[in-house]
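In this section we walk through a basic example: taking a raw amino acid sequence and producing a predicted 3D structure, encoded as discrete structure tokens. The instruction is simple. Fold the sequence below.
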Amino acid sequence: MEFEKITRENDILFILKGRLDIDTVSVFEKEISEKISGKTSAVLDFEKLEYISSAGLRCLLHFKNDIEKFGGTIKIVNVIDEVKEVFDITGFLDIFEFE
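The resulting token sequence is shown next.
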């Protein structure tokens, strides 16, 4: 998995590419844990994310909980159908805000 991060004054944008799974989630977890302090919102662009596993979902749930501790929000945009189906099947579609 590759990702690009764009940090603005009060928010951060992550553009994910490839697969967010057990083999790649630790790198992403480290990056988000270092970047969310003081941020009020995060946007995850999944246009090029091809696959997400349960490890990836768990990572996103922790990310959501952490950013909400600071009063922030998280939004997921540009989700391809295959990835959105995983969110739907697991019930995560109701947990996250999608655009």
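Looking at the output, two observations stand out. The mean pLDDT is 91. The first strand starts at residue 2 and ends at 7. In the next section we compare this with other chains.
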